[in-house]
Amino acid sequence: MNSVHSTDSGQFESVIGLEVHSQLLTKTKMFCTCPNIFGIEPNSAVCPVCLGLPGALPVINFEGIKLAVKAALALNIDINKRSVFVRKNYFYPDLPKGYQISQYLEPVSSGGYLDIKVEGVEKRVEINRLHIEEDAGKLIHVENESYVDLNRAGTPLIEIVSEPNINSSGEAVAYLKELRNILVYLGVSDGNMEEGSFRCDANVSVRKKGDPGLGTRTEVKNVNSFKFVEKAINYEIERQIDVILDGGKVIQETRLYDSKEDLTRPMRGKEEAHDYRYFEEPDLPPLILTDKFISEIKGSITELPTAKRERYATEYLLTEYDGGVLTQDKEIALYFEDLIEINEGRVEIKKIANWVINDLLSELKTRDKMKVRKERVIDLVKIENFLGLILEVETGNINKNTGKTVLAEMLLSGKKAGEIIKEKNLAQVSDEKGIGDIINHVLEENPKELTDLISGKDKLFGFFVGAVMKKTKGKANPKKVNEILKRSIAEKIKGCRE
Ligand code: ADP
Ligand code: MG
Ligand code: ZN
């Protein structure tokens, strides 16, 4: 939106609160024993409980409770030893029971925070609560027909609600990325946004800078990528500022983000807002957690990204930037750590970090565009094979550029660097005689350039280096080529004078 009031808009600040829903990685659903899997035949993972048939009774899945408590502890949220399940009542075709089992006034955990960093500035985002609930089914619309798939009905979710103390789309995205990363590190969620296992509603309002109160908010529903969250929030901020500067009032409503048009549209207003008629779930007792249970889960939490970043700085002496990139993805971090371990000090850690950051990650990005899953790629380039490649370059058997070619080939075939180098005859030519012979050839093939070089056209030196590299298909050790070529030319000049 192109604001005509851009000079006035500086007097506003934005306030954002995020509600995140994340699927839990349990084997079975939250209140029945149906499998919790994505992408199988519609309505093949259902039973009387998740279909809401009369008389069926829910049973709490303790695996789900464990994962929720684990997430809460990692997010510094206080565990409530007593919490209560409630029915959140509403009608929707993907909700056969007519209610979702959720938590409301007494959630499993409340009051916490997550520290984020945006452009070098630290910020603490307060978290209001984390509670457990079940997901609804899914509607699939095909042309003029709609289908209901209830495989997702009853799958476990946690909802994490932030306080409204996020102040820009950048902070919102940093918070979401960090949150997602932590849940994936914990093994609580697969964090897959495309499949909807990590999704977010963004509440946005604006107010005059310095105003103590909050402005009226709108809620943008279910945005399914970081980029779209950022765009949807930015659009809402500008839209609301424009409304106010035009003398209007922001109305509280739910809006949907349209990524094609890059704008948000009203979905339902406050008048149509649901009154969920929450009441205690009569078929489930309150959830009581013991200190022992909580401390056992606390003990099972492995190293989280923040701790890893600190350790990479102190133990591996890496920069904050390197640590940040390496820990953005749990599997990459573990891959890197395994490399360090089997390296046993042979190659400098910084060099290994560079290989992972500059080469492996960029290759992964390329494959990702080709829709090849990261897990498959990492599987293909075994840790010992990747270190093998680094060692081939370090020992001078191949040069760095050839190393990149070899890596690309490794990602396709899964072969070892040594095999590829042999098969494709890529080993660097470093022996004096070999390079000397090629240089002599090249000099003979270009008599005119040689005469010019001898008579003082120094620029032609580069021409000969290039010709030698070309002849060796880039395999010659460039340092050696320079050395020997200089020597040969000097001899020729001497020969001319004599
Ligand atoms: P609801 O359940 O109706 O969505 P909540 O009170 O649980 O309402 O708030 C949901 C989210 O909205 C929270 O993340 C909260 O921080 C955020 N929020 C509340 N008021 C505002 C506001 N004025 N501006 C921005 N975000 C807000
Ligand atoms: Mg809400
Ligand atoms: Zn079921």
Give a structural overview:
- The protein is of the alpha+beta class and 498 residues long.
- The chain has three domains: 8-297, no CATH class; 303-423, no CATH class; 432-497, Arc Repressor Mutant, subunit A.
- It has 17 helices and 16 strands.
- It has a nine-stranded mixed beta sheet. A three-stranded antiparallel beta sheet has the order 5-4-15, with no helix packed on it.
- Helix 3 (169-186) runs antiparallel to helix 4 (226-245) and helix 14 (432-445) packs across helix 16 (460-471).
- It is elongated and about 105 Å long.
- The chain starts with 11 loop residues before the first strand and ends with a helix.
- The model has no long low-confidence stretch (mean pLDDT 92).
